[in-house]
Amino acid sequence: MTSIRLAGMTVESDGDGPPIVMLHGLGGTSNSFQAMMPPLAGFRIVRPDLPGAGRSPSPAQRITVEFLVDAVETAASHLGVGRAHVVGHSFGTLIAQHLAARRPARVASLTLFGPILEPQDAARARLRDRAATARNEGMGTVADQLAGSALSSATANDNPVVVAFVRESHMRQDAEGFARSCEALAQADKADHRLIDCPTLIVTGDEDAVGPASVAQELADRIGGAKTVILHRCGHWTPVEKAKECGKLLADFVRGIQI
């Protein structure tokens, strides 16, 4: 595994074979997908910490979805990745959708865990409030709020390691970078799904309040031929709460697609 700085991001690249680019969500890092890795032997896995998140510094310019798409595309080009399977979680699914719409030649397939379209007005307000909380109270307050609300009841009650992971993932974020990422999502628009023409897998949890089954179905309706899977007793942190299931779903899906 190599870890390098590209396009203002810390990027992990591991393995050989067809490339898979994995994009984390708010409060996440490349490690959001770590527990999914075992079934993906035989692929080259590229996982950035997006600008302002995890080990990547906040950029000088404003963070927007367009800026993040450009950063991912630039890093992939530097790594010699021309066409890849693109995987996203939460905010990463929106970035992945925009990438597939803007640069279809670069995207062999989409896999969207805990998918989002664009925030509704109430969600935009919550994101701005979360940004203010991060700046004014620090990431500890944010971490406690989200570790309690973003997971399924089964995970919260029976899997304290996942609760600790989600809390620590938020605690490790730079407060300003996290706040700016929240604001980027708060002002984001949905992708033009008419331009997405690749095999698509959509996976969400039956207790995911951010990317619920209704959003997954709407996305499937917008992206022709998309397959939807609903995981039982799972909240919004799909790749962590149901890592084995998600890893197998992704591996089975991409192994059938030629790059």
Explain the overall architecture.
The chain is of the alpha/beta class and 259 residues long. 43% of the residues lie in helices and 18% in strands. The chain contains ten helices and eight strands. It has an eight-stranded mixed β-sheet, with helices on both faces. Strand 1 (2-6) and strand 2 form a beta hairpin. Helix 3 runs antiparallel to helix 7 (175-186). The longest helix is centred in the middle third of the chain and has 17 residues, at 121-137. The protein is globular. The mean pLDDT is 96.
Key attributes of the depicted protein:
259 residues, alpha/beta, eight-stranded mixed beta sheet
In short:
This protein is an alpha/beta fold.
What is the topological layout?
Layout: E1 2-6, E2 9-14, E3 19-23, E4 44-49, H1 65-78, E5 84-89, H2 91-102, E6 107-113, H3 121-137, H4 139-149, H5 153-158, H6 160-171, H7 175-186, E7 200-205, H8 213-222, E8 227-231, H9 238-241, H10 243-255
Parallel strand pairs: 3-4, 3-5, 5-6, 6-7, 7-8
Antiparallel strand pairs: 1-2, 2-4
Helix pairs in contact: 1-2, 3-4, 3-7, 4-6
Largest sheet geometry:
8 strands, mixed
Q: What percentage of residues falls in helices of 4 or more residues?
A: 40-55%
Main structural class = alpha/beta
Radius of gyration: 17 Å
Per the principal axes of the C-alpha atoms, what is the gross shape? globular
Low-confidence stretches: none
Order of helices and strands, N to C? EEEEHEHEHHHHHEHEHH
Number of strands: 8
Number of helices, counting only DSSP H or I runs of 4 residues or more: 10
Strand order of the largest sheet: 1-2-4-3-5-6-7-8
Beta content: 15-25%
Oligomer: single chain
Overall pLDDT confidence: 96
Termini gap: 22 Å
